[in-house]
């Protein structure tokens, strides 16, 4: 039986001879053998690479396990509560310290976060949100921070709840200590300031007793009245600082307040300027009465504080017993006038040393003073009285002098 013709149909070649077919088969076998050897080699290399990758993966898993153990130990040892939530609010993790705040798996947890403004998260310009609040009788500071995936999308949120109760208590203790220290310093200053007028009162009392009925007795009485006014101002400042004064609304004549202040300040200036000419005190008031609705005693106390500050400022200026050319270089000006929008404006001017620009914003703060023996309450009291009457007080620089402007509404209900 003849073998079929191995040549393709239509081929012009003749039938393959046996020796040629044998050669073709041998070449095919060699090609298959070479491909098999190459496949075996590639498979061996692949097995070796898989083994290496498996070892790397094992080492990586062990390292991750160690890091996870360390991280878990750290989280469990933290005194702050840590909770991880997925974007839908499902809790993924919480450490034991979270129990002091709330259980993330409980139903009230998300409403509690919503109440404190921590949930749901919104698109914010900052990555971290921090909120302080009280909960369960303690003070807390909560921090929410997003966790982002490889493409920048938010895949969860980490919450940290820190108990700040002790810190808040310490802050309150420091604040209380500061207040007590300031109070102690103020009491020391008050004792010092009271001692001086009390000594003057005792001196003039003894002189008045010896020279009763003499012309000097009236002068001694004036000095005693000045000392009493100084102590009254100091005690009044303390009372107005420690408690809110009760305002009694009445019709007050601003013109009479300024004239009374001028008389009292002139007497005080004469008493405090024994070795030189007293300062020139001028009262500029309208010819007719100028009324406003307010508490007359409190308004006078405010003006008295401004005027005595002015007297202290001009007394601090150097000067001689007789001014050059007969002109007094120390001046205090007291004014009242009708202002805009139905206000009554008081002005107290002095040409003393003035107020430095760097402290001008602090002069109305309680206990702030540049005087070695001052309490720092005078201008603060003036500000409080002005606000209680619905007005304001401000400092302006006028040439080389100092001007305080107290503007009050002419009428209307008082606050207090």
Keywords summarizing the entry:
416 residues, alpha+beta, Beta-Lactamase, Heat Shock Protein 90, 2 domains, five-stranded antiparallel beta sheet, five-stranded mixed beta sheet, rod-shaped, disordered C terminus
Helix coverage percent of residues?
40-55%
Q: What are the segments in which pLDDT stays under 50 over at least 5 consecutive residues?
A: 412-416
The CATH H-level superfamily of the largest domain is Histidine kinase-like ATPase, C-terminal domain
The first-level CATH class name of the largest domain: Alpha Beta
Biggest pleated-sheet summary: 5 strands, antiparallel
H/I helix tally: 7
At the fold tier of CATH, the topology name of the largest domain is Heat Shock Protein 90
Which structural class is indicated by helix and strand composition? alpha+beta
Tell me what the structure shows.
The structure is a single chain. With 416 residues, this protein is an alpha+beta fold. It folds into 2 domains: 88 residues, PAS domain (Beta-Lactamase, 2-Layer Sandwich); 229 residues, 2-Layer Sandwich (Heat Shock Protein 90), CATH 3.30.565. Helix content is 46%, strand content 20%. It has 7 helices and 12 strands. The strands form 3 sheets. The chain has a 5-stranded antiparallel β-sheet, with helices on one face. Strands 7-9-10-12-11 form a 5-stranded mixed β-sheet, covered by helices on one side. A two-stranded antiparallel ribbon has the order 6-8. A hairpin with a 2-residue loop joins strand 11 and strand 12. Helix 3 runs antiparallel to helix 4 and helix 6 runs antiparallel to helix 7. The longest helix has 60 residues. It is rod-shaped, with a radius of gyration of 46 Å. 22% of the residues are buried. The C terminus is likely disordered.
């Amino acid at each position: 039986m003849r073998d079929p013709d191995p040549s393709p149909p239509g081929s012009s070649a003749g039938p393959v001879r046996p020796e040629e077919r044998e050669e073709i088969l041998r070449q095919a076998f060699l090609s298959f053998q070479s491909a098999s050897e190459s496949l075996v080699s590639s498979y061996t290399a692949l097995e070796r690479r898989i083994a290496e990758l498996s070892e790397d993966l094992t080492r990586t898993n062990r390292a991750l396990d160690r890091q996870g153990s360390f991280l878990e130990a750290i989280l469990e040892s933290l005194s702050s509560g840590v909770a991880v939530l997925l974007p839908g609010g499902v809790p993924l993790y919480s450490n034991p310290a979270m129990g002091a705040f709330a259980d993330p798996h409980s139903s009230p947890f998300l409403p509690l976060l919503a109440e404190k403004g921590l949930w749901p998260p919104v698109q914010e310009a900052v990555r971290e949100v921090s909120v302080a609040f009280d909960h369960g009788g303690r003070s807390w500071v909560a921090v929410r921070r997003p966790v982002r995936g490889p493409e920048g999308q938010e895949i969860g949120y980490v919450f940290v709840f820190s108990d700040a109760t002790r810190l808040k208590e310490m802050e309150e203790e420091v604040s209380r200590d500061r207040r007590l220290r300031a109070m102690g310093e103020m009491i020391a200053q008050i004792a010092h300031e009271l001692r001086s007028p009390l000594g003057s009162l005792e001196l003039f009392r003894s002189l008045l007793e010896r020279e009763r009925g003499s012309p000097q007795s009236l002068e001694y009485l004036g000095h005693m009245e000045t000392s009493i006014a100084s102590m009254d101002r100091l005690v009044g400042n303390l009372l107005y600082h420690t408690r809110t004064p009760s305002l009694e609304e009445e019709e007050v004549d601003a013109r009479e307040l300024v004239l009374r202040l001028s008389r009292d300040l002139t007497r005080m200036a004469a008493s405090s300027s024994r070795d030189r000419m007293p300062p020139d005190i001028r009262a500029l008031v309208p010819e007719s009465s100028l009324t406003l609705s307010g508490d007359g005693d409190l308004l006078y106390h405010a003006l008295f504080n401004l005027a005595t500050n002015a007297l202290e400022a001009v007394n601090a200026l150097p000067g001689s017993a007789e001014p050059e050319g007969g002109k007094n270089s120390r001046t205090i000006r007291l004014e009242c006038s009708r202002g805009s929008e139905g206000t009554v404006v008081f002005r107290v001017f002095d040409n003393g040393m003035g107020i430095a620009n760097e402290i001008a914003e602090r002069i109305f703060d309680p206990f702030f003073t540049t005087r070695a023996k001052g309490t720092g309450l005078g201008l603060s009291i003036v500000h409080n009285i002005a606000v209680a009457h619905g007005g304001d007080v401000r400092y302006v620089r006028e040439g080389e002098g100092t001007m305080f402007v107290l503007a009050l509404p002419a009428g209307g209900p008082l606050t207090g």
